[in-house]
Write a structure and sequence with these properties.
Helix content is 92%, strand content 0%. By secondary structure, it is mainly alpha-helical. The longest helix is centred in the last third of the chain and has 41 residues, at 31-71. The two termini are 25 Å apart.
Length: 72
């Protein structure tokens, strides 16, 4: 099953992009570039948070379905 790996890869990608944006913000000498990088970091972090919540919900749903299957 490759779906969990893909979701995990997405999460790791989002986190890596957030880290890159953070590094670029720290290195920026121009205020508007630093601000843009910080906005980018916030957006990537939001995507990572959403991906993580979605994965947790999928896992909880799978556990619920498995528990229902054992009762039947």
């Amino acid at each position: 099953m490759s779906a969990p790996l893909a979701r995990s890869s997405n999460l790791q990608f989002f986190l890596a992009r957030a880290a890159q944006a953070r590094e670029e913000a720290e290195a920026a000498t121009l205020d508007h570039v630093r601000d843009r990088c910080r906005r980018s970091e916030a957006a990537w972090n939001a995507l990572a948070d959403r991906a993580q919540r979605s994965e947790q919900l999928r896992e909880a749903e799978a556990e619920r379905k498995a528990a229902e299957g054992l009762k039947a």
